[in-house]
Structure formats: C-alpha cells, structure tokens
Amino acid sequence: MNTVLDIENISFGYTKDILLFDNFSLSLKAGEIKAIVGPSGVGKSTLFELILGHRKPLSGFIRSSSFSQVFQDPYSSFHPTYTVREQIKEVTSMEGYELLLEKMGLEEAFLDSLPHKLSGGQLQRCSILRALLMKPKLLLLDEPTSALDNLNQLDIMKLIVDNLEGMGVLLITHDGDLAAWCADEIVTLS
Ligand SMILES: Nc1ncnc2c1ncn2[C@@H]1O[C@H](COP(=O)(O)OP(=O)(O)OP(=O)(O)O)[C@@H](O)[C@H]1O
C-alpha cells in the first residue's frame, strides 16, 4: 500500500526549552485510519500545523501526499459572504457530489445557503463533503464531529470509513470510543 504521510524523527517546540515533539515518527498508508489522542495542550493541533507546513520542524522531515482538512469549527472554514456551493466549487469539480450529498443527509438548498444560515452540524457536513470531493490522498480531521450529536458523529465517521478508496485518515479526537471504533491504530501523545 502507498504511504500517504511519512513523519520521521521530528522535533519541535514553540520555545527552545520545551519540546512538544522529540524524535517523533508516524507513517500512514492509503486505506488506513490513525487516531491521535492525548490530553489538552499535548500538541495534537500542532502536529497538524506541522503537516500542513504552517510550522517547520526543528529537525527531521515530513512528507505528505495531497491533503484536505476538516477542523472543529465549521464556521471558520467557510467565508461568510459566499454560498457553500460557491466555496466548494472553488476547490473541487463537484463530480459525483449528488450521491455524497444524499449519503450525508444534506439537501441541495444547504449548498445555496450562506454558511451562517446553517446549523453547526449541517455546515460541518458540508465541510466534510468539500474535503471528500477534493479526493485527497490524506484527510486530516481535527475533532471533526464535535459539532454533531452522538448518532450523527458515528454516521459521518462511518461514511468516511466506507469511502477510504486510496485515502489515509489522521483523526484528532478526545473521544476514546470513537477512536477505538474507527481507527486501525491509536497514537497517544504524552
Ligand atoms: N502559536 C503558539 N505559540 C506558542 N505556544 C503555542 C502556540 N500554539 C500552541 N501553543 C502551545 O503548545 C502546546 C500544544 O498546543 P496544541 O494546540 O497543539 O495542543 P492540543 O493537544 O491540540 O490541545 P487541545 O486538545 O486543547 O486542542 C500548548 O501548551 C499550547 O499552549
């Protein structure tokens, strides 16, 4: 299987004296889901910042395939003055969106709404729809289902699990049950 993310021996800290990562390695293959868990402040979001290239490791390297991401707060992922559809069209061809729309319990009308007219859960589904339509090799999920209730959380994660097709998923979550249910491996940061 293809490796879609390769993190080798990275070290990183925001200050010189406190290293959040010291020789940390992780690799992810297409078709795999790994969950990143650990207490608040341990560095889970920082790991994503490093993968996204917003931060540079002090040593070691990160190689990543094409990725898309879903963050905890869907309202910060969409521009407030353009419709959801306009923003999805900006980054994807929207090919095959109708089937996903139905599977995700979304309506066409949601796509033609401005983001703030939708509930947090509805907009988060749109954010996941956009991420999947981008057909990434690597999907980065940072607490993606925290805006959804328990039943919807499982439905949405099941949809992602069932549509892995050549994609690897890295999931940050505080939800141990969700991690245990969907992940091939749980990586605990400490
Ligand atoms: N821009 C920054 N400058 C300095 N320190 C930072 C910065 N961003 C985060 N930190 C610190 O780095 C540590 C890790 O933060 P990070 O957000 O990665 O943790 P986390 O595990 O994602 O936490 P949570 O579960 O609460 O979201 C924290 O101690 C945080 O205060």
From TrEMBL:
<dbReference type="GO" id="GO:0005886">
    <property type="term" value="C:plasma membrane"/>
</dbReference>
<dbReference type="InterPro" id="IPR015854">
    <property type="entry name" value="ABC_transpr_LolD-like"/>
</dbReference>
<dbReference type="GO" id="GO:0016887">
    <property type="term" value="F:ATP hydrolysis activity"/>
</dbReference>
<dbReference type="Pfam" id="PF00005">
    <property type="entry name" value="ABC_tran"/>
</dbReference>
<dbReference type="InterPro" id="IPR003593">
    <property type="entry name" value="AAA+_ATPase"/>
</dbReference>
<dbReference type="InterPro" id="IPR003439">
    <property type="entry name" value="ABC_transporter-like_ATP-bd"/>
</dbReference>
<dbReference type="GO" id="GO:0005524">
    <property type="term" value="F:ATP binding"/>
</dbReference>
<keyword id="KW-0067">ATP-binding</keyword>
<dbReference type="GO" id="GO:0022857">
    <property type="term" value="F:transmembrane transporter activity"/>
</dbReference>
<keyword id="KW-0547">Nucleotide-binding</keyword>
<feature type="domain" description="ABC transporter">
    <location>
        <begin position="5"/>
        <end position="190"/>
    </location>
</feature>
<dbReference type="InterPro" id="IPR027417">
    <property type="entry name" value="P-loop_NTPase"/>
</dbReference>
<protein>
    <submittedName>
        <fullName>ABC transporter related protein</fullName>
    </submittedName>
</protein>
